[in-house]
Design brief:
single chain; alpha/beta; Alpha-Beta Plaits; Rossmann fold; 3 domains; five-stranded parallel sheet; five-stranded mixed sheet; globular
């Protein structure tokens, strides 16, 4: 693929751990089909592929991953008819995600039906260079659309681009009027638990319900924006912190009384807020927005219908720490990774690395209980407590938001990969592996925590 110029930058990677890297969701039940796409799109062109063998699972992955592109193997739909894809296709179209359908045989009737739904239709014998060209063309088209819209398609709320413009407007107004403005970061409480219990689609619905509730509860001069994957930022012009906190207490109380109908039955939820007011017109847009999320050292379990005064930490931006735990029974792998990952966070984090021969030794070391951010690189097969057991314990007994988990193993079957993702792995790589690719994937995982 050396003759294809990728020249592509993924948009809105706040919705994904794979920053600046196109993420593809493939509906497929044919290993040969998947191998072809992984070879020419993932290995040769740096895209990331996740796979599902049925539409319901694909829809769940869509809400979990926020993909940039969807590829469908027509063998999954030929028997039942194209109409079975309508719901999933609508989900993609609503979010400006292009669809490519690959036909496993030449059937004009099926081709025409697919053309009515998909952005592109290709045959199974397509040349690799044509495949890559078509995918990149549609990804660039999507980027042009995302550059022009100011609404987050997943929630219908103003998007991050719109938020940046609004903060710039507020700072300019502050220079003229010297009246402060307030911003509030809001986020659903216990969202990981909701997603684990009911699924990502229900978790997304609860986030969307929160956005609509706040949107319908504020003044015309106020405005709400989607901020990264789980939260929103509310901008309150000419408002001081104390008034903003009173407003949030009222909204939190009202939201907790609501009940929402979902496909899993009736659910309710709460949200927490972090309030800041801004009085310095010399601050930059980036400085203002960096202050918005909850501090990383505040455990998720401590937040429940909670309003935080964020101004107290207004000037306390310090270098964050990242602890890297390597859990692998191969001593050579442990030593090699310790050497290769010493500078993995560049200047963004202060990195500390420790290595363990198995999961049991890792959990016996109190190091892992520090209130810091952790990246764990975990082997699948180990003599004491294997990789899946480590994942299970991390995701059920610890604050899961503090732990990024990457599986690094020789097991490459679809079942193994699916099982690891279900247990909570953020990424999965197969041995033997490329150090360059490993470093790139880890950096993207880390950047997703900002």
């Amino acid at each position: 693929m050396n003759d294809v110029n990728l020249n592509y930058e993924a948009k809105d990677r706040s919705h994904s751990t794979f920053e600046n890297q196109p993420l593809l969701l493939v509906l497929n039940d044919d290993p040969e089909f998947l191998s072809f796409y992984k070879e020419h799109l993932e290995k040769e062109n740096g895209m990331v592929i996740f796979e599902s063998d049925n539409q319901p699972k694909a829809a769940e992955l869509f809400y979990q991953l926020y993909p940039d592109y969807v590829i469908i193997n027509a063998s999954l739909i030929a028997d039942d008819g194209v109409h079975v894809l309508n719901g999933f296709v609508q989900l993609c179209q609503d979010n400006h995600v292009p669809i490519l359908i690959s036909l496993d045989k030449e059937d004009l009737k099926l081709r025409y039906a697919c053309m009515a739904l998909a952005d592109d239709v290709i045959g199974s014998r397509v040349e690799p260079v044509e495949l890559v060209t078509r995918v990149i063309r549609n990804l660039r088209k999507r980027n042009r659309i995302l550059d022009q819209i100011l609404i987050d398609p997943m929630t219908g709320i103003n998007n991050y681009n719109n938020l940046q413009q609004e903060v710039e407007h507020q700072l300019n107004d502050l220079k003229r009027s010297h009246e402060p403005f307030a911003m509030v970061y809001v986020q659903v409480d216990d969202l990981p638990i909701v997603q684990e219990t009911y699924g990502y689609a229900i978790g997304h619905q609860l986030v969307k319900e929160l956005g609509e509730f706040i949107q319908n509860s504020i003044r015309p001069a106020d405005s709400l924006y989607r901020f990264h994957r789980e939260g929103f930022v509310l901008v309150l012009p000419k408002t001081v912190k104390e008034d903003a906190m009173k407003l949030m207490y009222r909204l939190i109380e009202r939201f907790a009384q609501l009940r929402f109908q979902t496909t899993a039955g009736e659910i309710s939820g709460t949200f927490s807020a972090r309030v800041l007011d801004f009085m310095d017109p010399l601050q930059t847009i980036e400085q203002c927005l960096t202050l918005m999320p909850f501090p990383k050292d505040k455990a998720v379990a401590d937040r429940k219908a909670w309003v935080m005064d964020g101004t107290a930490t207004f000037t306390s931006i310090t270098l964050r720490k990242l602890k890297v735990g390597i859990i692998d029974d191969d001593r050579l792998i442990r030593e090699m990774l310790k050497h290769q990952l010493e500078d993995i966070a560049d200047q963004d984090f202060e990195v500390e690395i420790r290595a363990y021969p198995d999961g049991e030794e890792f959990f016996n070391d109190p190091w892992h209980r520090q209130n810091e951010r952790f990246l764990l690189i975990i082997d699948r097969i180990m003599p004491k407590m294997d990789g899946l057991e480590v994942l299970q314990k991390i995701r059920t007994q610890y604050d899961r938001r503090r732990y990024l988990c990457m599986m690094l193993t020789s097991r490459d079957s679809e079942e193994e990969i699916s099982m690891a993702i279900q247990r909570g792995a953020n990424d999965y790589m197969v041995k033997p592996f490329s150090i360059k690719e490993l470093r790139a994937r880890i950096r993207r995982l880390i950047r997703g925590t900002r």
